[in-house]
Amino acid sequence: MPSDSRRVQEIETILGLSRLISSGLEQQDILSATLDLLHDELGWSRGVILLVTPDKEGLILEVARDKTPFQPGKLTYSRGEGIVGYVVETGLPVAVPKVSEEPKFLDRIYNRRQIVQGEISFICVPIIYESEVLGTLSIDREYNPDAASLEHDLQILKIIAGMLAYDVKARRQTAELQNTFEEENSRLRTELMERFRPENIIGNSNAMREVYQAIYQVAPSDATVLIRGESGTGKELVAHAIHVASSRAKKPFVKVNCAALNENLLESELFGHEKGAFTGAVAQRKGRIEDAEGGTLFLDEIGDFSPVIQVKFLRVLQDRTIERVGSNVSRQVNVRLLCATNRNLEDAMTAGTFREDLYYRINVFPIMLPPLRDRRGDIMLLANHFIEKGSKRLNKSIKRISASAIDLLTGYRWPGNVRELENTVERAILVSTEGVIHGHHLPPTLQTGRTANAAGTGTLEERVGIFEQDIIIAALKRSKGNMAAAATDLGTTSRILRYKVKQYNIEPKQFAR
Questions:
Q1: Are 244 and 212 in contact (CB under 8 A)?
Q2: Could you give the percent of the chain with pLDDT greater than 90?
Q3: Where residue 8 sits, what CATH number does that domain have?
Q4: How many CA atoms lie within 13 A of 337 on its CB side?
Q5: Which site in 73, 152, 201, 354 is 20 to 30 Å from 95, CA atoms measured?
Q6: Of 44, 119, 46, 53, nearest to 85 (Cα)?
Q7: Which CATH number goes with the domain that contains 311?
Q8: Radius of gyration of the chain measured on its C-alpha atoms
Q9: CA–CA dist 63, 61 (Å, integer)
Q10: Same domain, 230 and 291
Q11: Cβ atoms within 10 Å of 436's Cβ, excluding its own
């Protein structure tokens, strides 16, 4: 039986562990401090805690006391391997009186034969919660021929492992719950992003997802929005999406292209005019701002505003009032303003062609549209959309895009952005004759490398070669890689087709599926 002083040490150890568990420390700190406690209070050395891996197929080193060449998380055991593997597999504790006489003792973590003088005993107990084994706790102690002493230490270690089990299980449940929340969060974010994507805009790239999120952040408010981006990126589509998602959706959406009219016509277009206000004003006319009453006014290319119009428009932004041309009567208006430009307004302010006060009035919530070259993952989504749309309008059946055409579409920089892509696809639909868009159906500006350079100056041989490759690949796809069938389809011999396939480095097997 243990002495009274030993019993006091055991009680102090258990109390110390209780304080550790309730301390709020990180799990690894608690486990490491537990091994220190077992060493300092009870004299047990080389304590080790291994935890079951998430897939429950093995054990991984979590903490080990005393010097060891292994780092936590690096050393693993399989279920059933060695003493610790047996303890996990069976859920039963093991006490080895003499490790030198135990063949299952692997001594993988410490090379005891080199660092230990004399005989030692080894105790390993499962860290078990209810019927689930979460890991193992093991220690070394000096050999004592008294079997009762070894059994007593085994029971004390089981109590300590049982206390640790509650903490380990609670943390695992918290971690699993956290992972579940994160996965659900990620799923919901993806669903929300899909919901955020307006029906009139195509694209799943990260850059466009940020645009969709910005649309739904600002749409419910009446904040003024400045939509910026290169020509052809879809600024009007974003403006319309904001209007549709706003509380003004059932009210008018009025758009004005500020670059299409000169100063006098633009003023009349925006503010309206009274009869006789100028030559040709034969009747009173409401302006586009009044037409948008209760709804949304979209000013495209606001960077082209003249200085005079800029001053007059400031009043609209400040007071929400207008005066028609030829009238001194102020009229209150209730409109939500959306602006767009492809100009660098900051440079225009520096040059003195755009007023700073107007800039800060319209730049309340900026949305930057990425150019198509920065969202290459969306190119084929857009191309397929335009093919479906154009095929219906032009009454043509387009089944697919050839590999060579895909390479050209995705490799081009698209200076004209989405608008240029739409026009390119429409042209390809028009010139396609067999329901497939091939590389040679695309404009010369897209031809690169082996077809033509950016200026469209490819040789006749290069262009014929591309055409030949396209029709051979198309035939092989139809025949699912069958060379004989493809040769018959093309009205040639198998020998000639094999020569061409080798010449163009085409692999028929890739079409077998």
A1: no
A2: 28
A3: 3.30.450.40
A4: 23
A5: 73
A6: 53
A7: 3.40.50.300
A8: 38
A9: 6
A10: yes
A11: 20
Q: What is the pLDDT of residue 79?
A: 81
Q: What's the pLDDT score for residue 68?
A: 56
Q: How high is the pLDDT of residue 278?
A: 73
Q: Is 173 helix (H, G, I), strand (E, B) or coil?
A: helix
Would you mind telling me the total number of residues written for the chain in this entry?
A: 513
In a domain, 192, yes or no: no
Task: Say if residue 94 is in the same domain as residue 154.
Answer: yes
Report the half-sphere exposure of 420 (CA within 13 A, side-chain side). Answer: 19
Q: What is the largest CA-CA distance in the chain?
A: 120
CA distances (Å), origin 511, targets 43, 309, 475, 479, 507: 71, 62, 10, 8, 8
Q: Do 353 and 232 belong together in one domain?
A: yes
- Residue 225's pLDDT is 96
Residues 9 and 152 both lie in one domain: yes
CB 172 within 8 A of CB 179: no
Could you report the per-residue pLDDT of 124-166, keeping only the tens digit for each? 999 998 888 999 999 998 888 888 889 999 999 999 999 999 8
Q: Which tokens is 30 given?
A: 């608690």
CA–CA distances in Å: residue 468 to residues 326, 368, 437, 444: 68, 43, 14, 17
Q: Share the mean pLDDT of the chain.
A: 84
pLDDT, greater one: 214 or 187: 214
pLDDT for position 453: 37
CA distance 317 to 18: 66
Q: Reduced to 3 states, what is the DSSP secondary structure of residue 37?
A: helix
Q: What is the CATH number of the domain that holds 400?
A: 1.10.8.60
Mean pLDDT across the stretch 2-9? 82
The answer as to whether 193 is a domain residue is no
Q: Would you call 148 exposed, middle or buried from its count of C-beta atoms within 10 A (0-12, 13-18, 19+)? A: exposed
Work out how many domains the chain is built from and give that number. 3
Same domain, 15 and 157: yes
Are residues 443 and 298 part of one domain?
Answer: no
- Gap between the Cα atoms of 405 and 466, Å rounded: 10
Within this chain, do residues 385 and 344 fall inside the same structural domain, yes or no?
no
- For residues 359-387, give the mean pLDDT: 92
Average pLDDT over residues 401-422: 87
DSSP string, 358-384: HHHHH-SEEEEPPPGGG-GGGHHHHHH
Instruction: Please spell the DSSP secondary structure of 209-266, one letter per residue.
Output: HHHHHHHHHHTTS---EEEE--TTS-HHHHHHHHHHTSTTTTS-EEEEETTSS-HHHH
Would the pLDDT of 112 be above 80? no
